[in-house]
Write a structure and sequence with these properties.
Elements (H helix, E strand, L loop, with lengths): L16 E4 L4 E3 L7 E6 L6 H12 L1 H6 L2 E7 L3 H11 L4 E4 L4 H6 L2 E6 L2 E6 L2 E5 L5 E5 L7 H9 L1
Parallel strand pairs: 3-4, 4-5
Antiparallel strand pairs: 1-2, 1-5, 3-8, 6-7, 8-9
């Protein structure tokens, strides 16, 4: 299994595009001039991911007030993302990265272990970028039940 080369602070956001939950094309370059939080998570409708997105939802106003736009990414499809958004009333968009363009560009897809089994998957990592599209913070060890707190601590 190949090692991953994850983006780090000081790196520029990749110039990529993808499809959101509504099937709309989203370009990362569209966010230039805005502060952006891109969070990667393994899969919709799983316990850790539910905890994470609900924590971000519950603290969304504070993140937005700090000037940030949130964008979630997993390899699930657009229709599954829409069901996830509807079920948990998420106020932010989710990118359907079924071709793994985003997870590979950010370096968050690679070897993982679960219950002693080694497999390829998406690592739970969050990137905080400034208005120029430069990554300022990377949160590698996401606490799913307090992820917004981690982000707010990193940006203030």
């Amino acid at each position: 299994m190949s090692e991953r080369k994850q983006l780090k602070p000081g790196d520029k956001l990749p110039d990529i595009s993808g499809i959101n939950e509504k099937g709309e094309k989203i370009n990362l370059s569209d966010f230039k001039g805005n502060k952006l939080i891109v969070f990667f998570y393994p899969a919709d409708m799983t316990p850790g991911c539910i905890n994470e997105v609900c924590n971000l939802r519950d603290n969304y106003a504070e993140l937005k007030e700090a000037g940030y736009t949130l964008l979630g990414v997993s390899t699930d499809g657009a229709s599954k993302h829409q069901r996830f958004i509807d079920r948990y009333k998420l106020p932010f968009s989710l990118i359907a990265d079924f071709d793994k363009l985003w997870v590979n560009a950010f370096g968050v897809y690679g070897p993982k272990t679960f219950m002693g089994r080694l497999f390829q998957g998406t690592h739970r990592v969050t990137f905080v970028a400034n208005e120029q599209g430069v990554i300022e913070q990377v949160i590698d060890k996401v606490k799913t039940k307090d992820h917004a707190g981690q982000i707010l601590e990193a940006i203030f």
